[in-house]
Every structure is written in C-alpha cells, then in structure tokens.
Amino acid sequence: MTMTPDAPVTAAPSRARILLVGSRHLVGETLLAALTTHGFDVALSAGASAAATLDEVRAQRPGVVVLDLDRAGTGFGRDLIRPLIDLGATVFVLIGVADRLEEARCLEAGAAGVASNAESFASLLEKFRRAADGEVVTALGDRIGSQRELDDHRRADRRRRAPFESLTPRERDVLALIVDGRPAAEIARRDRVSLPTIRTQVRSILQKLEVNSQMAAAAMARDAGWSGSDRTPARARGLALR
Q1: What is the per-residue pLDDT for 59?
Q2: Measured at the alpha carbon of residue 49, what is the angle toward residues 47 and 51, in degrees to the nearest 5?
Q3: What ranges in 61-194 are assigned the alpha helix state H?
Q4: Rounded to an integer, what distance in angstroms lies between the CA atom of residue 144 and that of residue 151?
Q5: Kind and range of the H or E run holding 90
Q6: Domain that holds residue 90
Q7: 91 & 38 share domain
Q8: Structural domains of the chain, count
Q9: Are residues 195 and 134 part of one domain?
Q10: pLDDT single digits (tens) 19-49
Q11: Pair 216, 147 in one domain
C-alpha cells in the first residue's frame, strides 16, 4: 500500500497506543513513521514469534494491535487474533492482497477491521482512527454479508469433499499416492502388496468418486482441495490394511 495520502486526511491523535505486529522491518518502519506523522501513538513490536508477541502485548497493554498477515511462516496468523482480543486489544488486520474470504475469516475471528495493499493510505488511516477511538470499523451489515459469503464457500467446499468421506483409510492412502503421480505398480512395491490388490483398490476409488480414470480422480481431489493429509501412513497400519 502507498504510504503517501492521495488526499488530505484529518486524523485526530489516537487515545490508544497502536502496536504494529508482524510487519517486515522496512514496511513496519515506514508505516510507523507515516502513522506517527498523522498523530498516532505507534510502536513496532519486537516479538519474533507469536508467544513473544503475546507476552509483549500482555506487558504493554496497547489499545490497538495491527496484525500483518503478509509474512508466511512467521507464526503471525489468524489464530493470533483471538488471544490478542482476550488480552484486551482491538485487532486490525493487514493482508497482502485483497481477498474477500480471507477478510471474512479475520472478521469471523474477531478482527475489528481488515485492509489490504489495494487500499489507499487515506482509507487505511481512517480505519486506524476508528479503531483507536473505539468506533465501529466494519459495519454490521458488511460483517453479516461477509459471514454469509464465507458460510456459502464452506458449504460448497463440504459438497466438493463429501465423496471422499466414503473412502476407506487404505483407499485414502492409495488416492493420495495417485495424486502425487505414483503409478499402481510403484504403489504396490512401496506398500509391499500385490499389483492386483492395488488395482482392486483403485477400481473401488473410481467407483466411489464416480470417475473413469486415475487422472480424473486426481484432478477431482485437487479441485476439492483434498490432500489426504489426515490419512494414517500405510506402513504404520501394517498388514491390517492388506
């Protein structure tokens, strides 16, 4: 997001200290400087992990925490929103790109508002002012619409995943390997079972998913977002699966 206002904005000094959490060093320093210039009382978190950040918030008691989620692998995720709220902070979330579902998930978790890099600095500044002053950032109607969109997405996702619920644990193992591009012969060698056994399991998978080929089954799994990550490795179950 651009840190130079595209229009004059009047922002009253905040009555609540703002703590910037998770922002990359350069982005965080730039945002801190821009907000301070407009009268906000802002600090940049030194927490290098979620636990350290919670300890910092517990000690400093900021009124508003700005949580930057655009840092993959750092631990500053949506699951930090509720603990921050429980510590008494109003949470405002920054996301890298505009994503209505991601915004909805953050609002559902309790965020007062969400902004993306697509927004102007003027818009961001106004949202910060509202959060700092304890005003409504995201209107109730917008929250209801956002939650409805998220619920619709989840229902559609459950419908896409429903056919996979009929698979046995062993069939889930085999399908996951098919999705990985493993041929039947390799699966048989890997799991030390006969090739006819694997072919029987594959036929059962295709019937349950109502597709005609392993390629179609793999495509269906990818489209549904099914990865088989909840399956128990075949070798851990031993002969019981054979």
Answers
A1: 92
A2: 90
A3: 81-86, 100-109, 121-132, 140-161, 169-179, 184-191
A4: 10
A5: strand 90-95
A6: 18-151
A7: yes
A8: 2
A9: no
A10: 998 766 656 778 888 888 888 888 888 888 8
A11: no
pLDDT tens track for 95-129: 888 889 999 999 999 999 999 878 888 888 899 88
> Which two tokens mark 160?
């896409």
Q: Smallest Cα–Cα separation from 28: which of 66, 85, 84?
A: 66
pLDDT of residue 62: 93
Cα angle value 114/119/121 (rounded, 5°): 100
Low-confidence ranges of the chain (pLDDT < 50): 2-14, 72-73, 230-242
Same domain, 133 and 229: no
Kindly state the helix (H) or strand (E) to which residue 92 belongs, with its residue range. Answer: strand 90-95
Nearest to 79 by CA among 129, 22, 132: 22
CA dist 162 → 38, 143, 156, 208, 227 (Å): 52, 28, 10, 11, 14
